Amino acid sequence: MDLPVDEWKAYVLQKWSLLPKSAQVAVSTAETLSEIFFHSSSFLQSEDEKFLKRLSQGYLVGKDPKAPCFYREEGNKKFQEKNYSEAAVLYSKTCLNDIIRALTHGYPERLRPKLLLRKAECLVTLRRLKEASQTISDLESNFTAKPSPAASPFQILQENLCCLKMKIQGKENLPETFPMTLTKDFEGVDLTEENEEISSASSSVCLCTDPLKGRCLIATKDIVPGELLVKEDAFVSVLNPGKMPPLPQGLESRWDTRVTNGDLYCHKCLQHTLAMVPCHGCSYAKYCSQECMQQAWELYHSIECSLGGLLLTLGVFCHVALRLTLLARFEDVHKVVRRICDEINNKDVCLPESKSLVETFNYCQGEREEIGEVVQTQIPGCNLNGKYENNYNAVFSLLAHTENHSPEHKFLCALSVSALCRQLEAASPPALTTGLKAAVTPELCADLNVWAVAMLRHLLQLQCNAQAITTIQHTGSKESMIADSGQVRLATGIFPVVSLLNHSCSPNTSVSFTGTVATIRAAQQIKKGQEIFHCYGPHESRMSGAERQQKLRSQYFFDCSCPACHCEEPRAAAGPRWEAFRCNSCRALLQGDDVLSCGNRACPESISRNHLASQVQDLQQQVEMGWKLLRNGKLEQAIMWLLRCREDAESFLSAEHAVVGEIEDHLARAYAALGDWKKSATHLQKSLQVVEVHHGSSSVEMGHELFKLAQVLFNGFAVPEALNAIQKAEEVLLVHSGPESGEIQELQKMRSCLLGLPPITGVSPRDFAP
Ligand SMILES: [Zn+2]
Ligand SMILES: [Zn+2]
Ligand SMILES: [Zn+2]
Ligand SMILES: [Zn+2]
Fold first, then answer.
1. What is the pLDDT of residues 559-600, one digit of tens each?
2. Which H or E element spans position 738?
3. CA 510, CA 229: separation in Å to the nearest integer?
4. Any idea where the domains of the chain sit in the sequence?
5. Domain 583-756 belongs to what topology?
6. Alpha-carbon distance 765 to 770, whole Å?
7. Are 336 and 453 in contact (CB under 8 A)?
8. What pTM, to 2 d.p., does this model score?
9. GO biological process annotations for this chain's record (predicted)?
10. Residue 510 CA to ligand 3 centre (angstroms)
């Protein structure tokens, strides 16, 4: 997804292997990015471009006039299957907003109310009550404005409308005022004291340089868990399109009814939305509002619009690189040019020797002399006053590690950028000069090659500096009452300030996202003078030490020496408890490498690791089957199946084994779906123990699990237990995601609802939610 599609990658690598030796050597030994770019791009031939074009055409990104009809029908089918969330998305593919706009221009009036009612119903089912209420009041004003004829379809509509309104009122029962005691503690530190040297960071940290590690953030005072340290909007972000392979050519089904991220989140601000406003020029860019569409158009989409298929083929990193250079046009270009020229002198990036650039170059030289030596003593990325800001200058200063990438990879990146630039030129001749702000010098922008080299730099930077923007996605709320939440990767972004943090496999902070804004909070006490760490992905609870070292070396080019990696060795032999096996005859834990023997000295049992590994694999397949039964609503069957799995698991896995946790979690879901809250809570508590051993008692994973427990106990009206679970979940989640997070808000609503309940006398959960 980040890199180009496999077909293009394979094609370019094939091309590389057929290059004359001298050309390969030229690319391998090139010292500057511009040399790499010009040595590589001279090999891009028109047949290569044709091949790339064919790949790009596999993606349906243009507008098709027949599409709305098709999606409406598919939406109706999903609606009848009671698959509301997919139906809602498919309806929004019919561009409800387009239809409403069309209605004002004499579109058949009778189509509108029915569609609106369907939309409202979907929204109620999805508990998006505000939007549903809005849709309903739109509908009502539609009725009152024109007294409805006695025709029956309208009466049915109105009856449906009444039902819907009652449903909404039922769901709105939860009072809106919730205790603010806990959130208050955290509001005080909400970046009210912004750092003077680093934008978007709190004054509790400062920017330092370390001869070995480069830039880093250090605590300037003692920091408490949950304290907000960085709150930064992405300088650039590109929505990951989600899994959507191109359709084979000539396939009968012309439209895709699969729902992906691109259908659920605004391409500009990443807000979740069901009624999308699509771009007028393409079908892949969709927005939450007219404003987002307008902004995106002015900032970058006017140029990206016609390139959809190509950008999907070349991958998200290429897209981010292009968007970065497009955004650079709006910054103080003098600063940017100066930055690029600094890089020339440092032999890191070089500009082409074209005439217009020689002028630019001379211009920079003049500037540099005026500034004198100040530039040399700065921390990279800071402006002349020593301030580090979320801007293009800071992005440009992120390390590209040019010397560490393989020559083939550099060739692939350069060729992709080159192809993209040729398309840009072909699509709209002065693509980069149109719609520019007055500040931009025409010489600079007219020369696409400068931007090509800049794009190549960004492409190489991204491997180490791209930040995955994630969100908690709730699915499966229909069959199971427990929110099935999982972290999903939503977009790829660049956050210059977050990028200042170094990696640790057991970081002292936690990151979360709201739209395109990243927040970093202390996950534990951090003493004055200690470094602030962030995890780049390989976390000690998810990967073994050897795996982490390998990953960090190949992707980020460094050897990790974090505390977790330091003290890994002695623990490695026994393995973590969430991967431990136990003896079949005496139940003691097994020990050893290839052949495991029983920890109980009196017991002679021994067994090969390979055998145990295949046993785990078989069990996982069985658990998967149980999960499928559960998803298909065969609850009793699922429970029987999963209880058998648990029995099997108990015979050879430790009680804290990750697979045991999974089984308990599934059982909890199954019982919750049957309305047996007590049993559900019992199983959830067992799964909670596994999560605690695996991720730690104050981990975000623990927070999500406690949240589920709170939901189950709430639904079961176990008031004291529910309040207790709410409190625990809140304590953990506040540290990781702060008071504005959706989960915290829901916990607070649950609490105030429980506290405000009349004494319970014979109230069943079903009476509560009509
Ligand atoms: Zn938006
Ligand atoms: Zn477009
Ligand atoms: Zn480490
Ligand atoms: Zn034994």
1. 888 888 877 554 444 567 778 888 888 888 888 888 888 888
2. none
3. 10
4. 66-145+155-172, 583-756
5. 1.25.40
6. 9
7. no
8. 0.71
9. heart development; methylation
10. 16
